[in-house]
Amino acid sequence: MFGDRLPITIEPYKLARDAGFIEGDIPLDKCERVISALADTQGHCHVRLEFDIDPQRIRFIRGKLKGQLMVSCQRCMQPMPIDVDSEFLLAIASSDEAAANLPKQYEPLIVEDEKLELLPVIEDEILLTLPITSYHDEGECSVSSEMLVSGDVEEAQPETKPENPFSVLMQLKDKR
């Protein structure tokens, strides 16, 4: 277990059949694939997973992920907090072929046998939730926008319209 009743492996087919749920915390320092995207591994993410079967007999997981992560500001490279609050809907599929036939509202989760390691699924959702780039607000960042300009800024020259390469042909046509 990682925290409040969060197991390492689960049986998603059985949990879906029983309409079960799992809720607990995952320490960020246990998420090895996420660590490289973080400035600090202190803290945790709170996870709630609800399992069920929809009217089409598709077993699914409705999940919620919430936490505060420390990432690096891309301007000043100093740590900054970002709030992560994500909801996701995963359909449990036994093969790639079954996953390809799922309705569009579901993201496929391939579970080939009866057991599923929970940590990689949660790591995937954390990584999908993180912003591609993150910046402090300009007033809070130690690097101002003036510091980001390199070299002299030349005054914009008015654009000259390039000569039409077919103007010679137009002149020949007009001579007729």
Automatic annotation (TrEMBL):
Entry protein name: Large ribosomal RNA subunit accumulation protein YceD
A single GO cellular-component term on record: cytosol
Organism annotation: Oceanospirillum sediminis
InterPro entries (UniProt xref): YceD, YceD_bac
One protein family per Pfam: YceD
Family label: Belongs to the DUF177 domain family.
Function, as annotated: Plays a role in synthesis, processing and/or stability of 23S rRNA.
Keyword line: Ribosome biogenesis
Domain of life: Bacteria
Gene Ontology biological-process annotations: ribosome biogenesis
Region entry Disordered, spans: 152-176
